[in-house]
Design goal:
40% of the residues lie in helices and 16% in strands. By secondary structure, the protein is α/β, with parallel strands linked by helices. α1 links the parallel β1 and β2. The longest helix has 15 residues.
């Protein structure tokens, strides 16, 4: 079998966690940039970015994103894809999320389908945004929390709400399980529903994050790891850094014979 190189993404902080949860959780632009450089060295080709306001709260502020992106670019150059999030966290409405992407025009963005198109009434407002996205070179990833979300993605394409073509999807394992603990088997319903053959990545909650990532690597997907979802290494100890989790995911890829993608290969994979 000829393997497509594995894209390892890292989500170093998320929207809700703080340094009370882990002292090495990066918050400031400088902290994020240092962590990005370490993660790139460990094998990550993509950085999933969250930014905070002056009080440390989740933000979609365009200038805050620009500041962090500039700091990371100084640290890693083009060695990582920089992906921003539109996550609402109960603060931002769909129109605000979409406006941020239009103004920022990031290299890559992750979008929660449930947030941007929560119901049929939202389809009219969202369709022009997704049509615009399809005309740009922004690498777009759809965040999906269940097989039903994946089926809905395909239904929205069939209805003309989303442009056609192969999508990049992030399968979130364990988001709605007790204690938000993921198992590798949580991936199976997504794969069964992926009849359209969308490109896919996995992120997972809890101590089996790397086991889930290794399963994804063995089954042809890509992976996202990091402090946003987990602090625990496969041996049960706490990871000292995000880079340690990236290294563990890279080790899982080596165990199944999967080569790692560098950033240029990752850009080609996600643009396809």
């Amino acid at each position: 079998m000829t393997w497509e190189p594995l894209v390892v993404a890292v989500a170093p902080n998320g929207a809700r966690k703080s340094q009370q949860d882990h002292p090495a959780l990066p918050i400031t632009p400088e902290e994020i940039a240092r962590e990005a450089a370490a993660c790139a060295e460990a094998g990550a080709a993509m950085l999933h970015l969250h930014v905070r306001d002056a009080q440390g709260r989740h933000s979609l502020d365009v200038e805050a994103y620009r500041t962090v992106i500039a700091a990371v670019r100084r640290a890693v150059g083009q060695r990582m894809i920089l992906q921003v999030t539109t996550e609402a966290v109960g603060i931002y409405a769909p129109a605000q999320q979409m406006a941020m992407v239009r103004e920022l025009r990031p290299e890559a963005v992750s979008l929660a389908l449930r947030e941007l198109i929560p119901d049929a009434d939202a389809q009219v407002g969202a369709a022009p945004f997704f049509e615009w996205l399809a005309r740009t070179d922004i690498l777009t990833q759809f965040i999906l929390y269940s097989a039903e979300d994946l089926e809905r993605l395909d239904a929205l394409v069939a209805a003309g709400v989303l442009p056609g073509g192969r999508k990049s999807a992030l399968f979130v394992l364990g988001r709605y399980t007790p204690g938000q603990v993921s198992e590798p088997a949580d991936l199976l319903p997504f794969l069964a529903a992926n009849g359209q053959g969308h490109s896919w990545s996995v992120c997972a909650f809890g101590a089996k994050e790397i086991a889930c990532a290794t399963a994804a690597a063995a089954l042809g997907g890509h992976v996202r790891v990091g402090f946003e979802n987990n602090f625990t290494l496969p041996d049960g100890t706490m990871a000292e850094s995000n880079a340690a989790l990236v290294a563990a995911a890279a080790g899982g890829a080596r165990a199944v014979g999967r080569p790692l993608a560098d950033a240029d290969a990752a850009r080609a994979i996600f643009a396809a």
